Write a sequence for this structure.
């Protein structure tokens, strides 16, 4: 069974600064995928970034990047130049096939002006 | 051009009633899902379904049943609603190619309140 742990229930950051959200996971699978989703107050689930476990290179999407440490089973999300619109719940998720996606408990991020 | 849509967005009903939530995707995906997000924001998969297979999370009561009239739709029927069913329900879809995992795209969610 897969488990995903987000140890930071809440975080805050000043606008324009950088923040890192932590995520660890536990799986016995060799081929799996990791995701970060964002859920703003509108409650829409929005994909932020995706990482394939077989790829060593860390995924990057504009201001969002991950630090993927496969041996440590760690998948942290770094948000650079934080913007007010980044205020949201952030969920880390893992999946090894399409039938079993597991989410962490979420981190509530507040960007302060 | 909404990719994954759900109706209704809000649903308020009495205990014991039967209700349905509809989900449609126009992404051409072949796998659809239902998730439940509880009051603590915890997301848990309820079902995944493609043309060949329905996978049910064993913790889901049999009062919940997914119904798929075609590949683009996966509706959620709930019988004999209970207070504990109050939650936000998300539909999602993805493309499946063998064991390859593609990104799941979510609908806007349906907030169900059982009184």
């Amino acid at each position: 069974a897969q488990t995903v742990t987000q140890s930071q229930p809440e975080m805050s950051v000043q606008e324009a600064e950088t923040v890192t959200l932590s995520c660890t996971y536990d799986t016995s699978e060799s081929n799996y995928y990791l995701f970060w989703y964002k859920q703003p107050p509108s409650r829409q689930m929005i994909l932020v970034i995706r990482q394939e476990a077989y790829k060593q290179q860390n995924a990057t999407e504009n201001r969002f990047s991950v630090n993927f440490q496969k041996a440590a089973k760690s998948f942290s999300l770094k948000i650079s130049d934080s913007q007010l619109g980044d205020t949201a719940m952030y969920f880390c998720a893992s999946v090894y096939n399409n039938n079993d996606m597991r989410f962490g408990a979420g981190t509530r991020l507040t960007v302060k002006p | 051009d909404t990719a994954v849509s759900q109706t209704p967005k809000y649903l308020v009903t009495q205990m014991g009633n039967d209700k349905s939530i509809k989900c449609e995707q126009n992404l051409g995906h072949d796998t659809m899902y239902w998730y439940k997000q509880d009051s603590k924001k915890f997301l848990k998969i309820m079902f995944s379904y493609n043309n060949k297979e329905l996978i049910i999370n064993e913790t889901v009561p049999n009062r919940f049943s997914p119904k798929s009239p075609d590949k683009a739709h996966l509706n959620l029927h709930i019988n004999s609603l209970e207070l504990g069913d109050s939650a936000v329900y998300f539909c999602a879809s993805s493309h499946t190619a063998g064991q390859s995992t593609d990104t799941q795209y979510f609908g806007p969610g349906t907030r169900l309140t059982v009184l």
Summary: Chain A touches chain B through 26 residues (CB under 8 Å). Residues 3-112 of chain A form a domain with the Immunoglobulin-like fold (CATH 2.60.40.10).
